[in-house]
Every structure is written in structure tokens, then in C-alpha cells.
Amino acid sequence: MLQKPDPRNEQIIVNINGTLTPRAEARVSPFDSSVQNGDAVWEGLRLYDGKIFRLAEHLRRLRRSAIALAYADIPTDEDIRREIARTLEANEMINGVHIRLTLSRGEKYTSGLDPRINTMGSTLIVLAEHKPPVYDKTGIKLKTSAHRRPPGDVLDQKIHSCNQLTSILAKLEASAARADDALMLDTRGFIAETNATHLFFVEDGVVRTPTTAACPEGITRSAVIGLCEQHRIPIEITDLTLAEAYRADEVFCTGTMGELAPVVEVDGRRIGNGKDRPVTDRLSQLFTELTANEGEAVLAS
After folding, report:
1. pLDDT, the chain, mean
2. Radius of gyration (Cα) for the chain, nearest Å?
3. Is 125 in contact with 28 (CB distance < 8 Å)?
4. Smallest Cα–Cα separation from 261: which of 276, 283, 244?
5. Rounded Cα gap, residues 290 and 301, in angstroms
6. What is the mean pLDDT of residues 6-30?
7. What is the pLDDT of residues 136-152, one digit of tens each?
8. Which of 216, 256, 222 is nearest to 46 (CA)?
9. What domains are there in the chain, each with its CATH number?
């Protein structure tokens, strides 16, 4: 699960506020809110044959997150689309690409927490890398973390924030336990997600996934729910406990970075019989077909 460096990414061009810069020369001010306070929002996009899967939904989530944080200067969707296209064209990227969008409150005129010292406009970073899905499609292992996903009255997960310290602490736990990722609970003890992906559980042919009470509203998660509804695969969105995870016939995780990937073990317990995953396999195939046929072209034809 440890991502390996791709030599193709050593010479990529990074876009910072519309300026295209070689990776080795790319800089963000030490006064930027992303550096000072982790005050930024982000999206992960995936490029399939020149088209970005559900770009409009990603931009909508980015904008809603920025509005929730009262950003005063938010680029238009058209501006962001243009900068994505410029970045991809500069890097001659077509397929097998992951794009990280970061939007911060921008540069401050002095260090500090008060958003009123942000008077220079927002910072938009477009980082495109050669990166196929990162999860092992033969299966990953999860370890339940002691760190919990916070509820909305602490840090609303519907704000897709760059403040990911809880996820990092959970990931450290998982790595120490030689697991691939951490399974995270909410403060009530129900399953929320992993440190980086959403989770789905299959029992007796029914697909079940946690609510978004303590996790982001995932784009890939939404796509999988839609596929279940479209293809008459029973789907439930509900609170789920660890016991229900342990007894599941199949478990899989979803996300833009890794698409769909099966989970073969949770807390040292084998999931199902460890090899047969008919529902996961079917949804993975349906998702592959969906990404091949749906997407927004951002490159000049």
C-alpha cells in the first residue's frame, strides 16, 4: 500500500495560481493559510482517456466547502476547469492520472489565525501526477483505529478540509500494526470510513454503507450507490458496528485515488472465505464501464 515514486512525476509542471512551474521550482508562501493553519479545502480527480470523472460534482463539493469556511475569493468553475486543462496540456497527460486540487484562503499579510488578515485572495493549486489506482485489487487489510472521526459539532466532515491530522494519526496506527489502512469509528462507536476511503459491506447479497454523519460525502461512494440502485442490487445506508464488519461476506472500499478495492481482513479477522467476492467484482466491473462512458472532457480536441 506504500505508494512508490514514479519517475515520470519528477519533471511534472505544477500550477499555482495560474503560473505553470516545474516541480522542483514550485513554491507556496510561508504566509499561505494552507501552511499556517491547514486552512484549505481539496478535491481528488481522476483522468480517464482525456475525461475527468464527475468533475462537476467535485467542483460543487469544493465550492461548498469553501463557502462553509467563508472564503471571500473563490475561483469560478470555469476558471478551475481552464487551469486544469492548462496543467494537463503542459504535462501532456491523457490517462492514468490523478489530479489534486487545493484551494486555500490565501496568503496573509502577517502570520496568525484571524481570517481578516487574509486580504490577497485565495490560492489555487493544480497538481497532476501519473498515478494509476493505488490500492491492491487483490485485497487490503484494515486495523481499527483508536482515533475517531469527529461529529459535525466538532469538525464537520462535509467540509472537505486539508486538516487531516486525525487521518494521519489513524494511518500511523495502521502502519504500526502492519495493516494497509485504518478503519475509523465515529464518537458513537459506529463505523465511519477508513483514514482515506469509504467502506461498503455485503451480507446475504445486501450492500450496506455507513451514513455520512462522520465522513465526507464521497463522489465514488455516490457512484457506487447509484450503480446498486440502477442494477437492482439491494443497498442500505445505515449505522454499522464492528461486529457487522467482522461477519460480512464481503467488504470493499471506494475512493478516487483507488477506485474500488476489496478488503480481505479487518483486525486480523478474515472477511468471508477470503476469495469469493461476487458483489464486489460485479460493482468493480460496472464502475469500470461507468468511468469509460462518463466523464467531462477538459482537453482541446
Report:
1. 96
2. 19
3. yes
4. 283
5. 21
6. 97
7. 999 999 999 999 999 99
8. 256
9. 7-130 (3.30.470.10), 140-292 (3.20.10.10)
